[in-house]
Amino acid sequence: MAKPRQSRLRRAGLARAREAAGLTQEAFATRAGVEVSTVVRWESGCTTPLPGKRPQIARVLGVGLHDLERLLSPEVPQVQAQTQTQAVGWEGADDGRLAAIAGVREEIAKLTAEYEARPATGLVVPAVGLLGRVETLRECASGGSGDTQLPAIPAETFLDAAELSVSATSSAMSATGARLPAWSTSATASISSIPSMPSMASMPLSTLTPPRPAAPATTPIRWRRDLDVAEAEAALLVGRLLWDAAGRRDSSAAAEFFDRAARRAAQAGDSVLHVTVTLRAAFVGLYGGDPRAGVRRCVQAAVIAAPVSEALFALARLHAAEGHALLGNAAECDRALTTARGAMAAISPDDPSPGACPPRTYQRLAGAAYLALGRHTEARAALTEAAIRYEPGKTLAVVLGHLALACLGEGDTDAALRHVYTSVELAEAAQSVGALAVAFRAGREIVRSSDAAQPGTREVVDRLLAVLGG
């Protein structure tokens, strides 16, 4: 039975309009051309759709732009609205602060969307610049009594991170004797062309060293909350970019930013964002060689999500199952999967993130866990179901790469060849080095376990070499 939860939808009207159109969050995201997590953030009031995206959203919902603007206005309970009105009168006029913060958050959302559409290390510099603007807003809004100014990161830090991304990936794929694809190095080249960044040196950036938590406000003033959310969003994006730029090998810089984002999300009382950040920090451990630390983070995320969202709780338990599988702990993995299934069955209509853990996500992560445990038959069944439900893109490329490994584990080389070839095609189209690495791993295992002279095997090897050499 689903546990009663306090609804955290600040745009319940938007959610109702979507439901009236007969759309799930997943279907709405597909038609609007965004990720499901983006729709979740829209409906929970964490972010606002960019102006250029709104005509498409209005068409999907079957409403006019004027009606859409009304739906995008957050619905504040009467008691809370009264409290906020009193707080504004005590603090002074907040319109200027709110407008400035909203502008920065729009830019953060735009840069995040650009990164999710086509990852590039060249986005590190503008992302850090946005984080610096948030710091400046905090100092201005608090009259200079906010976080102390910390030394800025020199440009060389970002250049080194970008170059590390290429060298790390190249090292992992050195067995082919080929180069990285051109699209994976173009961003680094564009960053390296920047001789200096004097404007960044003057920014009050709290970067690799996390800031001291600001003193909590005595009243729920909206601009303070929005500023905390903006800093959490910016720090999350910078952490993701640095993690990718480091080739997912050096996690220290990314971890600092994820920790900072988690603190600000917690201070803002945004549980959805807090869980998102904590899971992102867990990925550093799960996919960076420290699954035990990753599992600990997943447990933290589950604890945060438990009183708020069954969907987010299920997602945290799924990633914990993946970590237990990487550690070879089959019993704990199965227990986590069972808990995740129970939470998914208990997702209620007022869950703030009902689309965070759809069946395909369960099948994808359960399949990866089974694969790590060497349970190839179970992995193949789960990943086959997941592959049917994903649209072409980098996630499907990863699923097919894992499916190829599962088929190979069962001795079905022909099926493995088909899946890995498609995986390579999708990874190249998505320009995803991570997806390409999974496809490469599958191709390498195929070469090791079969005759490299066979036409199918030779074709896959040639395709990988062509992609890496392009």
From TrEMBL:
Write down the InterPro entries for this protein, in alphabetical order. Cro/C1-type_HTH, Lambda_DNA-bd_dom_sf, TPR-like_helical_dom_sf
Which Gene Ontology MF annotations are present?
Answer: DNA binding
Top-rank taxon: Bacteria
Q: Which PROSITE patterns match?
A: HTH_CROC1 (PS50943)
Q: Offer one Pfam family short name for this entry.
A: HTH_3
CDD domains to which the protein is assigned, alphabetical: HTH_XRE
* HTH cro/C1-type domain span: 14-68
Tell me the protein's name.
Transcriptional regulator, XRE family
Question: What organism is the protein native to?
Answer: Catenulispora acidiphila (strain DSM 44928 / JCM 14897 / NBRC 102108 / NRRL B-24433 / ID139908)
The upper taxonomy is: Bacteria, Bacillati, Actinomycetota, Actinomycetes, Catenulisporales
